[in-house]
Amino acid sequence: MQKAALSVDDTVEIAVEEGRIIITPVKAVEYSLENLLAGITPENIHEKVDFGARTGKELI
Length: 60
Description:
Blueprint: E1 12-17, E2 20-25, H1 33-38
Antiparallel strand pairs: 1-2
């Protein structure tokens, strides 16, 4: 597994090509808050969502 740069519990994609099993590591996409916020536009922003009254344990 070291030669394949894999560890136990890594996420992989498995495919069969020409009778061969191909195992490819799936790399997690990392997002930054700055990039996510930059993608908000007046066209894709949603309305405020009301989740009801506080139950007393929410952060303010």
